[in-house]
Structures are given as C-alpha cells and as structure tokens.
Amino acid sequence: MAIPRLLVVDDDADMRSMMIQFLRKNGFIALPASTEQEIRNHMDSGRIDLILLDVMLGDENGVEICGRLRQDQAVPVIFVSALSADHQRMSGYEVGADDYIAKPFNPELLLARVRAVLTRAQRSSSLIYRRRVSTFRFAGWTYDGKRDEVLSPDGFQVTLSQRETGLLKVMLANPHIPLTREEIAAALDVTAAQDTTPEATGRAIDVLVGRLRSKIETNPKDPKIIKTERGTGYVLATDVQVQDG
C-alpha cells in the first residue's frame, strides 16, 4: 500500500506548484525539482515511482536528462512539454520515455496517464515486486500480511481494527518517509463522517494514529515507532525488514 512518490521536474515555478498541488490532492506524494542534479538528489535520498519531466529546463534539456537516467534507472518517465510536434514526441520515446503529454493539458488527462503508467510499470516489474509481501518486521514487531496478524515483541497477538491495520500497512510501506495527514487519508480513503474539510479529515487521522499507538507503542505519549513530524504529519521512525511470500 505504498503511496506513489512522483517527481515533478519543471523550471516554471508556477506550473510546478500547480502540478504538485493537484497530484497531492489526488493521493500522491509529489516532490519538486528543476535540474538534473535535483532529480539525482531525490533519487539518492528515497524511492521515486515516476518522473514528470519537462523538455525545456533552462540551460538543460529534458530529453538528454532522460537518456542519461535510462543508463542506470528504470523509473517511469512522462514528458510534459509545450513541444508537441511528432518528431519532438519521437525524440522523447527514443530515449525511453513511457508517455508524452503536451502543454497545455487537462489535469484529469494527466492524472489518467500517470495512473496508467504506474499500473503498467507495476505489471511489468520483476517478480519480486509482483509477489505478495507476506511479512513485515519492525522494532521487534511482526505483521503477517497473509494471516493479517500483528505479533508483539513478546509473541502475543494484538488485535487491530481494519482501519488501524490499513494505517499500519501505509506506514510500513513508507518507512522513514514523513507523510502528511492528507496523504494518509487519501491512501485510506478516510473522511470524517459528513465533514470532508481538511481540518476534519486531519483530526480523523490524528485519532486513528492515537489508537494505533496505544496498541504498538510502549509509551503512547512518547512514541518511538510512529512519530509526529512537526509541520508535516507522521513518520514510521524505524527500519522495516520485508519477507516476500
């Protein structure tokens, strides 16, 4: 249940901000970049599932950047560019792009193409990614995905609600990555009854995190596993070992 992490690469700050806000609203983690070095920095510091890449980046060229990335990276790339002639599209595909969207574009079209490329990438990835992950080990705890069981460090089974289990899965799939309340809510499809304002949804996530902490933290008032990330939301502050089934 990892939340897709997208990199939006554009030297136009307004366009970059608009795309990031739209993608975050639709449940993605969207990160900004404007140069090849910033792309590399993001990829060195964490998982990136897809890159939205402009062709014209000031003194840099997105097609050339994609070509260099393809030498050692398999991350999906979608070009988003005002250059839309056939030969310009072909130059993008020739260096390994997965799709090409012309500016200006309908945001809903962008969303559909992003989802399609992510789905295609998941289906064509290696078997290790397609197998169902069966076991997570973290801070002495074990979550068995096949049996949907949580075992404490002492070997006792701890009962979680369906929503608490969903939250745990989201956190386990994104260790050491600060997640906003909005990102968590989007992954869990959480709303606060009839009140769907960001404030109400944020409170619903806070309550859910509190319940999960009460079951897996030694001291819920001083959590060591799920920590509050000031100004962001929450982070799973422990390493996760994954055993595939």
Describe it for me?
The structure is a single chain. This protein has 245 residues and is an alpha/beta fold. The chain has two domains: 123 residues, Response regulator (Rossmann fold, 3-Layer(aba) Sandwich), CATH 3.40.50.2300; 112 residues, Arc Repressor Mutant, subunit A (Orthogonal Bundle), CATH 1.10.10.10. Helices cover 41% and strands 23% of the residues. The strands form four sheets. Strands 2-1-3-6-7 form a five-stranded parallel β-sheet, with helices on both faces. Helix 7 crosses helix 9. It is elongated. About 6% of the residues have low confidence.
Which class of secondary structure composition applies to the elements?
alpha/beta
Low-confidence stretches: 124-132, 191-195
How much of the residues is beta strand, in percent? Answer: 15-25%
How many structural domains does the protein architecture include? 2
The CATH topology of the largest domain comes to Rossmann fold
| Beta strands, count | 15
What's the SSE pattern?
EHEHEEEHEHEHHEEEEHEHHEEE
Q: On the 0-100 scale, what is the average pLDDT? A: 86
Compute the number of helices: 9
Strand order of the largest sheet: 2-1-3-6-7
CATH architecture of the largest domain: 3-Layer(aba) Sandwich
Report the principal-axis shape: elongated
Question: Going by CATH, what is the homologous superfamily of the largest domain?
Answer: Response regulator
Largest sheet composition: 5 strands, parallel
